[in-house]
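Inverse folding, one chain.
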C-alpha cells in the first residue's frame, strides 16, 4: 500500500510540475521536477526510493531511447553521421581521458581508474533535458538534429567506457587493446542484435494481423513490451542494450514507412498511449533524481572529512572543464570539417558553437551510472570515494541544467518574430496567431455532421482576423478594403450571371428574377456606397410598410398573403442557389494574397445558407446550436492554449498574455449570453 501511495504522489508531482511551468515557463520542467523531488524528500513522509541502476535503465532509459529512435529523423542522422560520431565517440573518449586526468589532478584522493569512471559517466548528454529547454529557444534545426543523434549514441559509448573503468578500479587490471575490441563487439553487436529482434517482432505482428487478429489491445501490449524485451535480451548476451533499443526504434520507424504500417485506429491509439507513457517516464526520471539529491548531499555535508566549500568548487571546476573541452572539440572538428568540405554544415559561427556547447546537459543516465558503482573492490576494500563521486555527478547535473536554462535563451535568442520592443505589434501578431490556431483546430474536427456549424464558427474567426488587419496603417487598411470590395463585387457578379443563366434557360419566373436582380443591385450599392445603401434600406422599409397598410383594406388580402409566401419561398431557395454559385466562383479564384478575404466572404455565404436552412427546420436549429456550441468551446480553449504556448516560448510578455486571455474571456461571456437566445431571434435582423 505504501508503494502504491508513493507512486500516486509521484504522478501528482509530475502533473504539478507542468502546472507550475505554465506560470514560470522560463524555468524548464526538468528543473522544476528535480526541485519538487528534493522538496518531497525533505518532507517527513518517509518516502524513500532507492536508485537501482539496472531497474532504472530497463524501466526508464529503454522505452525513452526506443521512442527517440522511432521519431528521430533518419535523413538527419545520415546527413550528420560524421558529426554525430565525432561527438558520440570522439568527444566521449577524449572526455574520459582528459577529464579523468583532470579529476585525478585536482582530487588526488580519487584513484586514476575511478577518476576515469567518473569522467566516463559524465560524458553522456541528456537529450530529454535539452528538448525541454529548447522548446522555448530558437534552436536551429540542424543543431537540434545533431544533439538528438548525439544523445542517442553517446549513452552507449559513455556507459561502456564507464563499465571498463569501474572494472579496472575493482580488479586493478586493464588492457587498452582488450577494452577497444570489447567496445566494438558490444556496440556493434548490440546495434545489430536490436535491429534483428525488432525485425522479428515486426514480422510477428504482421503475421498475427494476417490471421485476422486486429485487436488494438494486443498490438499495443506488444509495442509496449518491445523495448523492455529487447533491452533485457541483448543485455543477457553482454551486449549494449541501449544501442539495441535505439536500433529497434529506427527499424520500427522504417517498418511504419512500408507495408508494416499499422491501421489508422491502431496508429491513433499507439500515438496517444505512447504520449502518456513518455510524459510519465520523463517526469519520473527527474523527480526520482530529485529524491536522491538530499541523500547524496547529506553524505558529503555531514562527513567531517569533506570541506563543503572545497567539494562545491570541485563541481564548478569539473563542469567548466567539461564545457571548455566540448567547446574546443566542437570548434576544431567543425571548422576543420568545413575547411576540408567533409560535412554539409555551413560555415560555423560562434553562436552555433556556443549553443551546441551549452546543450551538453548531463542528466538521468549520469546519476544512474554513478549509483551503479559497487560499494567494495575485489579485495573487500570500500570503493574509493564513492559518496564523493556520486555527489560530484549530481552537482554537475544541476549546474549544467541551470546553466543551459539561463544562458541558452540568451545565446539562441527567443523567436520573438521581430517585435521585441513593440508591444502593440506583438499583441496584434499573437492575436492573429491565436485566431488562426482556432480556425485550424475547427477544420481538423470538421466532418459531414458538423460541417455547417464549423463553417459558421470559422466565418466568425475569419471576420475577426480581417477586422484586425484593418487596424494597421492607413495605407494597408485602404488596400485591404479595396481587395475586399473587389472580391464581394466578383461574388455578386457570379450571382447576377447565375440569374441571367436561369432567365436564358427559362427556369425562373420573370417576377422572381426581377426581385433577385434588385437584391443584387442593393448589395452592390451596399459594398460600394454604404450611405446610399442605408438611405435605400430606409426607403424600402417605408414602401413595404405603406404597402402592407393598404393591403389591410383589400378584400383579397388572404390570397395576396398566400401568393407572397409562395414568392418568398421561391426567392429564399433561389438565394441559396445564388450563394452556392458565388462560393464556386470565389473558391476558383483563391490565391495566397487574397485567401483570408476570400474565406471571409465564403464564410458569410455559408452562414447565409445555414441560416436559411435552419429557419425552415426547427429540429435542425437545435442540433446546429449544440454542434456550434461544442465547436466554439473548443475554439476558445485552442485560443488560450496558443496564447500560453506563445508566452512559454517567449514570443509575448506576461502583460500581453494577460490582456489576450481577458479578451478571450470577455468574448466567451458575450457569446454565451448571445447564444442563450433562440436562433431566429438572434438572426432576425442579420
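Residues assigned per position:
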Amino acid at each position: 500500500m505504501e508503494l502504491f501511495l508513493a507512486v500516486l504522489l509521484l504522478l501528482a508531482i509530475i502533473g504539478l510540475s507542468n502546472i507550475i511551468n505554465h506560470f514560470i515557463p522560463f524555468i524548464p520542467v526538468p528543473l522544476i521536477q528535480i526541485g519538487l523531488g528534493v522538496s518531497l524528500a525533505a518532507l517527513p513522509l518517509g518516502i524513500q526510493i532507492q536508485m537501482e541502476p539496472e531497474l532504472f535503465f530497463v524501466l526508464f532509459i529503454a522505452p525513452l531511447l526506443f521512442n527517440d529512435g522511432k521519431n528521430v529523423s533518419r535523413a538527419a542522422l545520415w546527413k550528420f553521421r560524421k558529426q554525430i560520431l565525432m561527438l558520440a565517440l570522439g568527444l566521449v573518449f577524449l572526455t574520459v581521458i582528459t577529464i579523468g586526468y583532470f579529476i585525478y589532478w585536482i582530487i588526488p584522493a580519487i584513484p586514476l581508474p575511478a577518476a576515469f569512471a567518473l569522467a566516463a559517466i559524465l560524458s553522456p548528454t541528456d537529450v530529454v533535458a535539452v528538448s525541454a529547454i529548447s522548446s522555448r529557444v530558437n534552436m536551429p534545426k540542424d543543431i537540434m538534429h545533431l544533439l538528438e543523434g548525439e544523445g542517442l549514441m553517446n549513452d552507449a559509448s559513455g556507459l561502456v567506457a564507464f563499465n571498463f573503468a569501474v572494472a579496472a578500479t575493482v580488479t586493478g587490471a586493464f588492457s587498452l587493446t582488450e577494452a577497444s575490441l570489447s567496445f566494438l563487439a558490444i556496440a556493434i553487436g548490440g546495434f545489430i542484435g536490436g535491429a534483428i529482434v525488432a525485425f522479428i517482432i515486426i514480422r510477428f505482428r504482421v503475421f498475427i494481423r494476417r490471421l485476422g487478429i486486429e485487436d488494438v489491445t494486443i498490438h499495443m501490449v506488444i509495442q509496449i513490451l518491445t523495448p523492455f524485451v529487447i533491452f533485457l535480451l541483448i543485455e543477457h548476451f553482454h551486449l549494449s542494450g541501449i544501442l539495441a533499443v535505439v536500433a529497434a526504434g529506427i527499424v520500427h520507424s522504417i517498418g511504419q514507412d512500408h507495408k508494416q504500417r499499422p491501421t489508422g485506429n491502431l496508429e491513433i491509439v499507439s500515438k496517444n498511449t505512447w504520449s502518456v507513457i513518455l510524459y510519465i517516464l520523463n517526469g519520473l526520471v527527474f523527480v526520482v533524481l530529485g529524491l536522491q539529491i538530499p541523500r547524496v548531499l547529506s553524505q558529503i555535508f555531514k562527513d567531517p572529512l569533506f570541506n563543503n566549500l572545497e567539494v562545491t568548487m570541485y563541481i564548478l571546476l569539473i563542469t567548466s572543464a567539461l564545457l571548455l573541452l566540448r567547446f574546443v572539440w566542437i570548434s576544431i572538428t567543425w571548422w576543420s570539417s568545413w575547411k576540408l568540405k567533409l560535412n554539409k554544415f555551413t560555415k560555423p559561427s560562434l553562436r552555433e558553437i556556443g549553443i551546441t556547447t551549452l546543450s551538453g546537459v548531463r542528466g538521468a543516465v549520469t546519476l544512474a551510472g554513478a549509483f551503479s558503482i559497487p560499494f567494495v573492490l575485489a579485495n573487500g576494500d570500500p570503493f574509493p570515494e564513492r559518496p564523493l563521486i556520486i555527489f560530484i555527478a549530481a552537482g554537475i547535473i544541476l549546474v549544467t541544467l541551470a546553466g543551459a536554462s539561463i544562458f541558452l535563451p540568451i545565446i539562441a535568442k527567443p523567436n520573438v518574430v521581430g517585435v521585441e520592443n513593440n508591444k502593440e505589434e506583438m499583441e496584434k501578431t499573437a492575436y492573429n496567431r491565436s485566431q488562426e490556431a482556432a480556425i485550424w483546430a475547427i477544420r481538423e474536427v470538421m466532418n459531414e455532421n458538423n460541417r455547417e456549424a464549423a463553417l459558421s464558427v470559422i466565418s466568425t474567426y475569419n471576420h475577426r482576423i480581417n477586422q484586425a488587419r484593418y487596424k494597421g496603417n492607413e495605407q494597408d487598411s485602404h488596400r485591404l478594403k479595396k481587395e475586399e470590395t473587389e472580391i464581394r463585387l466578383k461574388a455578386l457578379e457570379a450571382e447576377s450571371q447565375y440569374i441571367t443563366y436561369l432567365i436564358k434557360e427559362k427556369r425562373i419566373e420573370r417576377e422572381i428574377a426581377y426581385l433577385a436582380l434588385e437584391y443584387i443591385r442593393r448589395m452592390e450599392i451596399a459594398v460600394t456606397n454604404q450611405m446610399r445603401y442605408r438611405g435605400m434600406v430606409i426607403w424600402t422599409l417605408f414602401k413595404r410598410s405603406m404597402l402592407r397598410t393598404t393591403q389591410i383594406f383589400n378584400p383579397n388580402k388572404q390570397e395576396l398573403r398566400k401568393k407572397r409566401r409562395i414568392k418568398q419561398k421561391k426567392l429564399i431557395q433561389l438565394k441559396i442557389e445564388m450563394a452556392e454559385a458565388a462560393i464556386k466562383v470565389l473558391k476558383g479564384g483563391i490565391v495566397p494574397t487574397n485567401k483570408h478575404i476570400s474565406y471571409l466572404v465564403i464564410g458569410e455565404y455559408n452562414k447565409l445558407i445555414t441560416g436559411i436552412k435552419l429557419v425552415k427546420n426547427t429540429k435542425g436549429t437545435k442540433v446546429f446550436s449544440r454542434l456550434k456550441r461544442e465547436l466554439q468551446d473548443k475554439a476558445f480553449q485552442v485560443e488560450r492554449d496558443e496564447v500560453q504556448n506563445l508566452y512559454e516560448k517567449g514570443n509575448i510578455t506576461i502583460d500581453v498574455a494577460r490582456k489576450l486571455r481577458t479578451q478571450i474571456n470577455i468574448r466567451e461571456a458575450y457569446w454565451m449570453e448571445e447564444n442563450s437566445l433562440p436562433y431566429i431571434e438572434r438572426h432576425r435582423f442579420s
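The radius of gyration is 34 Å. The chain has a mean pLDDT of 78.
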